[in-house]
Predict the structure.
Amino acid sequence: MEFYAEQKSSGRGVKVAVVGAGVVGFSTAVCVAENLPSCSVTLLSDRFSPDTTSDGAAGIIIAQEFPDIPLERQRRWFRDGFDHLLAIAQSQHAPEAGVLLSSGCQIFREPPANKRPYWWDIVFGFRFLSERELRRFPEHTFGQTFTSIKCECASYLPWLHRRFTKAGGKVEQKKLSSLEELSPYYDIIVNCSGLGSKELAGDDGVYPVRGQIVKVDAPWLQHFIRDSDGTSYIYPGSRYVTLGGTRQEGDWRMGADAGDTEGILERCARLEPSVRRARVLGQWVGLRPGRRNPRVEREVTRSGGGRGAHVVHNYGHGGNGVTLAWGTALDATSLVRSCLQEMHPQAKL
Ligand SMILES: Cc1cc2nc3c(=O)[nH]c(=O)nc-3n(C[C@H](O)[C@H](O)[C@H](O)COP(=O)(O)OP(=O)(O)OC[C@H]3O[C@@H](n4cnc5c(N)ncnc54)[C@H](O)[C@@H]3O)c2cc1C
């Protein structure tokens, strides 16, 4: 076990392990390393960019509503993420980090019960589509238009990795069979293993939601179009246009499906006929970490040797992980801070 070189609390501060190198893991690792200097943070993961689910996500900052999380908390997650990414989009780091403003519309076959999503006043310029604008989409009767952000994780993850290293963080490649195996070596374990939490946290509420996309070359497309059901979308990006998609619950297949590709091209062409002239560059499949609600909370476990490690969970973001990663990372960091306060009640943190 040479990579666990030091035992925990060895005089170099509190040892924190963050498990997972997707957008949730790296966001959390950066937040802990930058905000809690008394911690020495190591990120452990079996897969890294470009091989995580996060890497292929279209990365549009839009969220669905989770049923059991107070809306106020969901709003905070969304706003914190939006503000964080907006600051990057407006800085010299934007191209390197893969973060850009993105405008477009979300369209509905029937008007929704809530015509404004909870984040309507966080994105910019939110309004309903006019009748004239809606004529573009004969199958739809209602639409919203706004400016949001696109965060391309294939660039953003390596950028976060560099930021984490700069903050003193360390990275280890390792497949874990349980969180307890880290207990003898770390004081606090932050679980950001996405779908891996089904096993690592023994959580039967976690399930895959398979998503296939098609990458096309269509540089004339500049505005996104999203069907509100989340299965048909056109998201222009910095290097290619992402056409989607599928939402297949309980489906673990990682290979691209020719029938899905055909369906995606057909549905997207109904939204925007010029898609038929786009050159297909490739396909990609990812498994969203589905769960009724994201789990962002503390738990205390006991290791085999009887030494407890504090555990903070941050997983289960479904189709909203890029959007909510920074907001939930800040919450997870507060939970790590509360662990530190229990461990060292006199310390100023
Ligand atoms: C087609 C598609 C389009 C999407 N579009 C969007 C979008 O537009 N906007 C949006 O907000 N979200 C979108 N998503 C959702 C988003 O991709 C996910 O919510 C997000 O990637 C989840 O991030 P994560 O870090 O939790 O998981 P992951 O990226 O899956 O990372 C999990 C990490 O944990 C590690 N791990 C797991 N098990 C173990 C283990 N046993 N030992 C060690 N390490 C382990 C993995 O190796 C990996 O590094 C999309 C998803 C798909 C599939």
Q: What stands out?
A: The mean pLDDT is 94. The longest strand covers residues 279-290. Residues 71 and 118 are 8 Å apart (CA to CA).
